[in-house]
Amino acid sequence: MPDPVPPDPTTSRGSHAMTTTSNGTPAIEFRDVVKRFGDNVVLDKLNFSVAKGDRVTLIGPSGSGKTTILRLLMTLEEANGGLILIDGDPYTHEYKGDRWVEIPEKRRRVVRNRVGMVFQQFNLFPNMSVLENIIEAPVHVLGLSKKDAVERAEQLLEQVGMSDKRDARCTQLSGGQQQRVAIARALAMDPEILLLDEVTSALDPEIVADVLGVLREIARTTDITMLLVTHEMQFAREVSNRVLMFDHGQIVEEADPETMFTNPSHERTQEFLKAVLG
Ligand SMILES: Nc1ncnc2c1ncn2[C@@H]1O[C@H](COP(=O)(O)OP(=O)(O)O)[C@@H](O)[C@H]1O
Ligand SMILES: [Mg+2]
Asked: Domains in the chain, please, with CATH?
């Protein structure tokens, strides 16, 4: 049974981690977002926002709700309450007159197209070639001509060092290669926001550096807003300008990476980092 409509966005909010550019609407905003799986309340009125161009890392123990946050942003999950805004545009509901109405799927898709995601398990289309994986959404969702989509895909394959595998089946690729294709596929949609969910966790250690190198280069050469979940603390430290520590779906601490990784103030963060960093 569906839950009641989201709360009024004008009501006062609790603790609210936030950065915005000086004139800016945040790229991502969560307002009192609630997400439950059955009786399991994963997010309980979560508030946070990410400014345009920010690189924000989410850390925290397994089960703390990090993946759920990213999946909500991709509309792979639906919130039970609250509002999610992309560039100030609500994703699921909006306030019309004096009531909340659901946003039609067509408009929702427009907002969703601004967001790209790379998953831990790559999630490529297994029966397609590398090139077909990359041009699929640009052609069918954005309506690009095949020629333009192929041209762009070739540039991206070059960028991720996979040009020579253009016509290979995805099933013939190693994990690291698949992940580089998955990154190219996400970028092919020209997203304003890139979500990265433990993208190196399923890879052999010697491959991890390659994939991180590709991401580092994207961070250096674009202004894409990034929200990443990673256990690669050195990488998080290099690319992100802000780190949020989650526990039980709540932000327990927010800091710049230097402070978070060398001098966290919250006991829960100290314990977590000690366990992760050894
Ligand atoms: N599809 C699902 N069905 C039921 N429970 C889920 C589902 N996805 C996630 N959960 C639960 O939500 C909680 C948060 O999970 P998740 O967001 O994956 O955490 P994290 O990414 O921080 O490890 C966990 O308790 C998990 O079991
Ligand atoms: Mg996860």
From this structure: 54-75+113-277 (3.40.50.300)
37 CB within 6 A, ligand 1:
yes
Sign of the Cα torsion 70, 74, 80, 84 reads positive
Are the C-beta atoms of 236 and 228 separated by less than 8 Å? yes
Mean pLDDT per block of 10 residues along the chain (278 residues) reads 44 46 81 95 96 96 96 92 91 81 86 93 93 96 96 97 96 94 96 96 90 94 96 92 95 96 95 90
Pocket flag, ligand 1, residue 26 (CB < 6 Å): no
DSSP structural state of residue 171: G
Integer Cα distance of 175 and 80 in angstroms: 35
CA of 10 to the centre of ligand 2 (A): 31
Query: Which ligand is located closest to the Cα atom of residue 198?
Result: 2
Burial of 177 by CB count in 10 Å (0-12 exposed, 13-18 middle, 19+ buried)?
A: buried
Tokens of 235: 């990488």
Taking each helix axis from N to C terminus, what angle separates 146-159 and 205-221, rounded to the nearest 10 degrees?
A: 120
Give the chain's radius of gyration (CA, Å): 19
